[in-house]
């Protein structure tokens, strides 16, 4: 039997010839002329003698060598050649995906083909919160504990919950395609690491809409356009923030957001009312850029769109000046939808005006965009808005 004492004494000791010492059940050590001590395992495969090297002492301890021997014996009882199994595991280890590689794989083979519009923002969040700590780690070697520590470092926030959701989707896709063997996040829930976005129910009253509309007169035109366009259409802030003039057809009184710029990854066309067309024509006459929202007479032909933080400040500015209860630009979208419903607009028309995808079988088979119905209910809404404001929406 081998002992640590015997191995320590043999280590580094020069000898005239190679010696072999046996332990039990096939475990042996080879003592080289130069004094190296190497574990190896002898066994029979297909009736022939075979052996496999385990590692050198003391990098591999005697107890670890015995554990490995037991593993090899188990493989043999299962009809597996330890030499082939070790090669297989080494290949798997060398081919194993890191977290960064798995995330990129998900982007390339799922997000891009599906036209996921949130790809750039998701990537920025990933590089800020996940990549610095776990980007180079092999996914199959990470544990739930590693991930919980990373999420905890973000604090119990909405963002922590969002990143868990993103990484779970990425790993689930990689796992289903056999790119990774282990999904360490599968059993984690958003509530384990973060919080859910708070449900918002703020909608503006008619009195608040009147104050906001009148207060817009003091803002530069490109800032007025953001809030007025939202009030006239009920669209998402990002749609007007990133809007380009080529999206607008003033003759047909429509505007179309291309699939690559839209949240759902689908092209969406909506009607514009006469008031909206008139306002946008005025803005275009003062613009010399491709983007709608730029400072007038900008010298940059293709400037970057305004970011969400910049346009969100418009609502805070108006609240601070007027003393209104805090509100956000997204509250306008909720307000328009609610008021249209109160005015009698059918749900499917409101959904089209908001740019939502139809639900159920309608999403697949009913491709009608109800433009005439949209125009009718936009006029109803704009007439109501004019009564609320107490004057024409567009100055003559």
Task: Give the percentage of residues in beta strands.
Answer: 5-15%
Strand order of the largest sheet: 1-2-3-4
CATH-level-2 architecture of the largest domain:
Orthogonal Bundle
Q: How many beta strands in the DSSP annotation?
A: 7
Largest sheet, if any? 4 strands, antiparallel
Number of individual domains: 3
Global morphology: elongated
SSE run: HEEEEHHHHHHHHHHHEEEHHHHHH
Radius of gyration: 33 Å
Q: Indicate the mean pLDDT.
A: 87
Please report the first level of CATH classification, the CATH class of the largest domain: Mainly Alpha
Unreliable runs, pLDDT <50, ≥5 residues?
Answer: 361-367
Helix share of residues? Answer: 40-55%
Q: Which structural class matches the secondary elements?
A: alpha+beta
Helix count equals: 18
The CATH topology of the largest domain is hpI Integrase, Chain A
Please identify which CATH superfamily of the largest domain we are dealing with.
Intergrase catalytic core
End-to-end Cα distance = 103 Å
Protein traits:
single chain, 396 residues, alpha+beta, Double Stranded RNA Binding Domain, DNA polymerase, domain 1, hpI Integrase, Chain A, 18 helices, 10% strand, elongated
Please describe what this structure looks like.
Helices cover 51% and strands 10% of the residues. The protein starts with a helix and ends in a 7-residue tail after the last helix. Helix 4 crosses helix 8, helix 11 runs antiparallel to helix 13 and helix 11 (221-233) packs parallel to helix 15 (329-342). It is elongated and about 110 Å long. The protein is an alpha+beta fold. It has helices at residues 4-10, 62-77, 82-95, 99-114, 119-129, 131-134, 144-153, 158-176, 190-193, 206-215, 221-233, 237-241, 274-285, 308-322, 329-342, 347-354, 360-365, 371-389, and strands at 19-22, 27-31, 37-45, 48-57, 248-249, 254-257, 268-271. 24% of the residues are buried. It is built from 18 helices and 7 strands. A 4-stranded antiparallel β-sheet has the order 1-2-3-4. It folds into 3 domains: 4-93, Double Stranded RNA Binding Domain; 99-193, Tyrosine recombinase, N-terminal domain (DNA polymerase, domain 1, Orthogonal Bundle), CATH 1.10.150; 206-389, Intergrase catalytic core (hpI Integrase, Chain A). The longest helix is centred in the middle third of the chain and has 19 residues, at 158-176.
């Amino acid at each position: 039997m081998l002992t640590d004492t015997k191995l320590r004494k043999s280590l580094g000791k020069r000898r005239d010839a190679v010696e072999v010492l046996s332990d039990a059940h096939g475990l042996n050590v080879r003592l080289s002329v130069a004094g190296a001590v190497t574990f190896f395992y002898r066994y029979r495969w297909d009736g022939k003698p075979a052996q496999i090297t385990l590692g050198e002492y003391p990098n591999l301890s005697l107890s670890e060598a015995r554990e490995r021997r037991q593993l090899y014996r188990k493989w043999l009882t299962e009809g597996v050649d330890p030499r082939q199994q070790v090669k297989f595991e080494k290949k798997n280890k060398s081919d194993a995906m890191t977290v960064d590689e798995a995330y990129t794989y998900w982007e390339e083979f799922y997000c891009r083909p599906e036209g996921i519009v949130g790809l750039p923002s998701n990537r920025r969040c990933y590089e800020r919160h996940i990549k610095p700590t776990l980007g180079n780690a092999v996914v199959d070697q990470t544990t739930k504990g590693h991930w919980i520590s990373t999420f905890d470092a973000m604090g119990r926030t909405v963002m922590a919950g969002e990143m868990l959701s993103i990484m779970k989707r990425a790993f689930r896709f990689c796992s289903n395609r056999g790119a990774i063997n282990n999904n360490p996040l599968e059993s984690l829930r958003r509530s384990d690491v973060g919080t859910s976005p708070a449900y918002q129910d703020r909608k503006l009253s008619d009195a608040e809409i009147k104050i906001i509309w009148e207060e817009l007169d003091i803002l530069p035109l490109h800032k007025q356009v953001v809030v007025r366009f939202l009030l006239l259409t009920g669209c998402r802030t990002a749609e007007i923030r990133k809007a380009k003039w080529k999206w607008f057809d003033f003759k047909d009184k429509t505007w179309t957001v291309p699939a690559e710029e839209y949240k759902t990854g689908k092209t969406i066309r909506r009607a514009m009312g006469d008031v909206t067309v008139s306002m946008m024509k005025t803005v275009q006459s003062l613009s010399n850029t491709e983007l709608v929202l730029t400072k007038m007479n900008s010298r940059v032909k293709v400037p970057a769109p305004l970011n969400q933080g910049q346009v969100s400040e418009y609502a805070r500015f108006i609240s601070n000046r007027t003393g209104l209860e805090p509100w956000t630009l997204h509250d306008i979208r909720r307000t328009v939808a609610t008021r249209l419903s109160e005015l009698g607009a059918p749900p499917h028309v409101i959904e089209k005006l908001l740019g939502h995808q139809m639900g159920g079988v309608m999403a697949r088979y009913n491709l009608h965009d109800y433009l005439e119905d949209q125009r009718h209910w936009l006029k109803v809404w704009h007439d109501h808005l004019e009564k609320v404001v107490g004057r024409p929406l567009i100055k003559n």
